[in-house]
Amino acid sequence: MSVKVVTFGELMLRLTPPNYERLSQGRTFNIYYGGAEANVAATLAQLGINACLTTKLPNNDIGKGAVNYCSSFGINTNYIVYGGERLGIYFCEDGISQRSSSIIYDRKNSSFATAKGDDFNWDNILDDALLFHYTGITAGLSDNVRSLLLIALKKAKEKNVLVSCDLNYRARLWSKEEANKVMTEYMKYTDILIANEEDAEKVFGISSGSDVESGNIDIEGYKKVAEELFNRHHLKLVASHLRESRTATDNGWQVILYDGKTFALSKKYNIHVLDRVGAGDAFVAGLIYSYLDNKSLQEIAEFAAASGCLKHSVHGDFNIVSTAEIENLAKGSGAGRVKR
Length: 340
Known about the structure:
By secondary structure, this protein is an alpha/beta fold. Helices cover 35% and strands 22% of the residues. The model has no long low-confidence stretch (mean pLDDT 94).
């Protein structure tokens, strides 16, 4: 499917100790690059989309390494700009069994967080784009990034570009009150909202009744959340992945969609987790791809769920996957037999 999708967000260096070691044990680290919008672009690029990452990186060898990494996955890096002092870093400790994963950020005053209004020519970037994607993480980074994002959203609406948002609330970035104010304004320009039950409650005060700490998901409760989000913000589609966290390495995984008339619920996957970071972004990419491909609501739910499911089996933030693999899993081929 030869269409253009633009994503806007921070690309970071990820450092992870090998073999489920704790950060306090780490003497060596596996290096990856990632970030919510970059992760979405990576999956879309592998599915044949012209996926354009818009970000700002330092003009040094670390920034160049990040670009090379993105390019190796097929991401269009033509709209990346350079400047600023540093690349944001995050340290990720992989969880296992009853020990949760843990992340420590070192991203203050990164090149992206200090980007300025004249860094991005949105008229050029969004030219011929079919969809623009952003997240609440980007919105929470800094006042100037929030201003840049609002400019991009207004330009997208001016050019009749579809807009998708993953709510992605991060308490370490901003307060619930500030997030509510900003994201409510952004919803005026948003068509597709991805919001899990926890983010919907923290940002918009809409509760599903689920106890995310216990891993219990109330599907009927989430349906009420989706209806409220859809009606309050005049959306085209509301989507969420429903994760049952039994342990750090054993999860239930399912997707639910609502288009204002119909709910679509995917099959549930019982996942043994290798690396869960980026799974939500892989789900979003599967959603965007199948939505733009004009699949039925149920087909979108199944494709998006399968895309996110597969990411749990891949190290790093980016999903390494093909369209055929996602389609086969969505159709029921998930036994893991050797392909010969």
